[in-house]
Every structure is written in structure tokens, then in C-alpha cells.
Amino acid sequence: MNKHPSAENTRDAAPVDEPKARKARPKAAKRTCIMVLGMHRSGTSALTRAINLLGAELPKDSIPADSNNANGYWEPTRLTLLNDQMLIEAGSRWDDWRPFDPDSLSASRAEFYKVEIARIIGEEYGDDALIVLKEPRISRFVPLYGAILASMNFQVRYVLTVRNPLSVIASLKKRDGMTAAFGSLLWLRYVLDAERATRGAARAFLSYESLIADWYPSIARIGETLSIGWPRTPAEAKVQIDDFLSAEHQHHLASVERLLADEAIPEWAKDTYLAVRSLEKDAHDQEALARLDQIKAGFDAGTRQFGAACILELNARQAAFTGTVSALENRNAEKDGAINVLADDGASLKAQVEALAQRESAQGQLLVERDKEISRLTAQKKVHKTQSDALARQLIELEREAVLEREALLHLEGRLQKAQRQVVDLEQEREFFLKKQEERISGVAEEYKEREEFLLDEIRKMHRGNSGNFTSLIYSVFSFFKR
Alpha-carbon Rg of the chain, whole angstroms? Predict the structure, then answer.
């Protein structure tokens, strides 16, 4: 795990109320838990994933991969937080190379952690028959977890992983800035405690170097040693495990020769590594076991004399460092506040700039539209000018025609006036003629009246005479009309 939470954080991460007692369940069939033990950065994650690919179930909520372990940790997040909380509450921590004493917890708190561990395991794995559990801190309190799992009807099978201390120390230095001396002591604590706590139990040893060099026989040997029937055979899982354990994921490789030649590494660490490698070949190697007993006795005695002073000094320095960090964080918080104000101002200015940019964009669009309209109107103006020129030419032609028509009209008006004068003259002549005719007719009428009266008078004369001479009468009438 990359980051190790503080006491406050881990305390908050786990429930604080005492859990309620559970009802008894009917006795179920035995289940198997493969518990992977070993020091941080020792290949426990790689082994756990390989065992999972063979069919053992992982927890539902695992710590996600990060820059320190791109392939994943495969360990339950909540158990990691709870274990950190328990260590801190007992006056220890994950990087404490002193033995962990569960009795430093009160009876009620110890019971609390037992119930919580059982609850989380139950929630993470459900009713799975074969599970794999890995959390490096458990290496320091194996009996606690062993008893809890047994109470949950699990038969526990242990796989102890070990890795060259030089490789582990190099990884811890890169991740945590840890010195070689401190890293060696921490490596010893995890390896020695896990080995001693699992003696007499069903267990197998596997070095990270063997796992990477040729995992197939190593995994097969673990299955045989622990009497585990893999749901998927190594042959069936070979392609996936090969891909996962590819050589490109190996970092901080170190040989045994380099380890033995490095004077900065304590002899205890060198001998412990060689002894566990021997147990990898023969789990009952008495010479290796005796050597580990000697080392652990000496290491425990040394930690009783010097461990408290070192860890207390480390804690005091860390507290001072934490205080300094806290002060810096407060200053940073103040600066962050100022930065946030500036950021808000910047955001406001940015919003204004964006608004102006939008307005400018809108204005630019309007200018584009205006230019288009100007172009359209210019083109329309040209068309109108062409039409206007044509109309002007037509107007000139019409004006010329109008002048001609006016001239023709004036000519016609002259003719009309002349005709009207002629009409007047003719009308006068007609009236004169008519007057003359009337006068003539009137004269003729009077003449005829006179002649009619003369004739009638002559006729009366004839009647008054003695008939007269008819011929003489006719001659008289004829002569009268002849006049």
C-alpha cells in the first residue's frame, strides 16, 4: 500500500460503535482461506493475484492500483485501515520493528477488533469456499487472524513469501525514504514473526525470486504441500499468470551474492533470508529453523533494550514533523485561501473575458453579416444603376418623343384653329345663305300667296261671268305662274 493513513484517519475509517452480538448460525462445511504472509514489497501482491487466477476468491473491495504498484495490491481496503487503527491504538504502527503485543489493548477493545475483523471478512468474501487473504500487517499478529478465521469455520493455509532484503530495502527507500538499516530491521520483524507464528500449521514457503523465475513448479508445489485442489489448474491459468508475472514488472532485482557482500545489511537479515530459502526447499529443515530461533531470540532481546527508545524517538520526531507539517499546511491553507480568492477573481475575469469574447464574436458575426449586406446592397445598387441608366435612356427617348408629339400637337392645334375659323366662316356663310334662302322662300311664299289670291280671284271672276272662255282662263293662269 502506498500511503499509510494516520491514526485519526484510520480510526474514522472503521466503525466506532461496539458491534451487536450475532445470532448463532447452523454449522457449515469447512471453507479454506489461503493467507499470504510476508513483508511489504516482497511479492505478496503478485502471489495473491496468481492464486486468484487459480480460482481463489479476492475481497470485493481491494485497494486500487497506484504508481507504487501498477498491477494492484489485491488486499481488502477496510481490513488494512482497521489493522492500522489497531496498531496505532496499541502504541505501534506498520513500520514498527518491535514485536506487537495484542495484550496492550484492553479486553473490550481487543474483542471489538476481533468482531470487526470477522464482520469485514464476512462481508468481503461472503460464502466463498476458497478465498485468498493478503495484508502484510497480519504477519505481525497471525494468531489473532488465525483464531478469528477458525471461528468462522475456515481452515487456514499459510503461504510465506520472502524476497531478497536488498530488493525490499530499495523499494522502501523509493516509496517511503527509508534507510537500509531501518528497512533491514523492519524486514526482519515481519519475516521472523510470520515464520514463528505459523510453525506447526499447514504452510508453504515461496520466494519472490522463484515465483518470477518459474512460477509453475512453485505454484504446483504449494498446491501439493497445502492439499489444495485448485478450481483452475495451473495449465488452464498459465497464459493469464504468465502475462501478469511478465519480466517487465520486476523491479529492484538483487542477487544473493550482492546481499552477502553488502556490509550495510545486518548479518541477521542475511542469515534469515538464506534460512527461509532453505525452508522453501524443505519446510522441515531443522538447521534453518534453529538458526531462525537464534536470530529471533537475539532480535527480540535487542528490541526490548533499544526498540522503545528508537521508536519513541521516531514517534517524537514524527510528531514534531507532523506539527511542522500541520503549520505548513495551515500556511498553505491560508495561501490556498488567497489563491482561491485570486482564482475566483481569475474565474470572474475569465468569465468577463469569455463574455467579451462572445460579444466580440457576436459583433464579428454582425460585421460579417453587415459586410454581406453591404455586398448585397452594392450588387443591388449596380443592378439598380444599370436599370436607372436604362430608364434614363428611355426617359430621354420619351422626352424626345414628347417634344415631337408636342410639335405635332401644336401643328394640329394650328390646323384645328384654322379649321375652326373655317367652320366659323362656313357657319356664317351658312347662316347668311339660310337667311337668304329664308328671305327668298318668304318672298316666294308671298308671291305664291299673291298668285294664289290672284288665281282664286280669277276663278271667282269666272264664276261670276257667263262661264267665260276656259281657254282664256287657262292662259291667264299659265301666264300668272310664268311670272
Answer: 66
Rounded CA gap, 81 and 7, in Å? 9
| Residue 475 binned pLDDT confidence (cut-offs 50, 70, 90) | low
Q: Which of 105-119, 287-301, 392-406 has the lowest mean pLDDT?
A: 392-406
CA distance 89 to 13: 14
Nearest-10 crossing angle of helices 234-244, 44-53:
140
Query: Taking a C-beta distance cutoff of 8 angstroms, is the pair 210, 280 a contact?
Result: yes
Full-model pTM: 0.63
Which conformational region is residue 287 in: left (phi greater than 0), alpha (psi within -120 to 50 degrees), or beta? alpha
- pLDDT tens for each residue of 291-344: 999 999 999 998 887 766 566 656 665 666 666 667 667 776 776 776 677 677
Q: Which set of grid coordinates corresponds to residue 299?
A: 532480535
Q: How far apart are CA 184 and CA 259, in angstroms?
A: 11
Asked if residues 298 and 268 have their Cβ atoms less than 8 Å apart, the reply is: yes
Given its phi and psi angles, is residue 183 left (phi above 0), alpha (psi -120 to 50 degrees) or beta?
alpha
Alpha carbons 90 and 104: distance in angstroms, whole number? 6
- Based on the number of CB atoms within 10 Å of its own CB, is 273 exposed (0-12), middle (13-18) or buried (19 or more)? buried
Torsion angle of C-alpha atoms 122, 128, 134, 135, degrees rounded to 10: -10
CB atoms under 10 Å from CB of 185, counted, come to 22
Tell me the three cell numbers of residue 470: 276656259
Residues in the chain, how many? 483
* 385-389, 437-441, 475-479: range with lowest mean pLDDT: 475-479
Q: Residue 97: how many CA atoms within 13 Å on its side-chain side?
A: 24
DSSP 144-204: HHHHHHHHTTEEEEEEEEE--HHHHHHHHHHHH---HHHHHHHHHHHHHHHHHHTTTSSEE
Max CA pair span of the chain: 220
Exposure string for 228-247, b = 16+ CB within 10 A, e = fewer: bebeeebeebeeebeebbee
Residue-wise pLDDT tens digits, 169-212: 999 998 888 999 999 999 999 999 999 999 999 999 999 999 99
Percent of the chain with pLDDT over 90: 47
CA 180 to mean position of chain CA atoms: 44
Please choose, from the candidates 153, 151, 192, 184, the residue with its C-alpha nearest in 3D space to the C-alpha of residue 168: 184
The residue type found at 438 is E
The distance in angstroms from the start CA to the end CA of the chain is 171
Confidence of residue 102 (pLDDT cuts 50, 70, 90): confident
